[in-house]
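User: Let's play a game. I give you a shape written as tokens, and you guess the letters that built it. Ready? Here's round one.
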């Protein structure tokens, strides 16, 4: 756990979040400032600063995270489609330096993103 990392503290249940799915290594919770009717954040419990830090050793973890996201999309009835995105660094607007995938759905999503 990284000191002063918001998502590490949510993963440790030190800070409340609207958790919808939890596993030993992965947590999913609703975004506090939703950009669509479904906006869920999926994080690894271990501290990884961003997708740029991923290596081959994270393959199993990533597969689990994508499995969790597919399961959430089914549970949230996103049969018409959804988007999974991760921001890396300031130019992309990353505001929390702990890897997280945004799962967005429930409305038409424009492309290209802003
Ligand atoms: P990013 O800007 O890609 O780093 O995404 C960070 C996301 O975390 C934003 O969409 C925020 O709304 C969300 N967020 C920040 N604090 C919380 C919190 N305490 N609980 C849930 N979501 C949060």
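Assistant: Ready! My guess for every position:
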């Amino acid at each position: 756990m990284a000191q002063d990392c918001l998502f590490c503290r949510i993963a440790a249940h030190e800070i409340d979040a609207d958790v919808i799915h939890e596993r030993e290594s992965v947590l999913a919770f609703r975004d506090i400032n939703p950009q669509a009717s479904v906006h869920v954040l999926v994080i690894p419990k271990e501290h990884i600063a961003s997708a740029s830090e991923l290596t081959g050793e994270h393959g199993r973890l990533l597969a689990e995270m994508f499995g969790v996201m597919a399961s959430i999309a089914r549970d949230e009835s996103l049969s018409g489609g959804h988007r999974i995105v991760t921001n890396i660094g300031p130019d992309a607007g990353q505001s929390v330096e702990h890897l997280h995938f945004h799962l967005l759905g429930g409305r038409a999503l424009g492309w290209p993103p802003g």
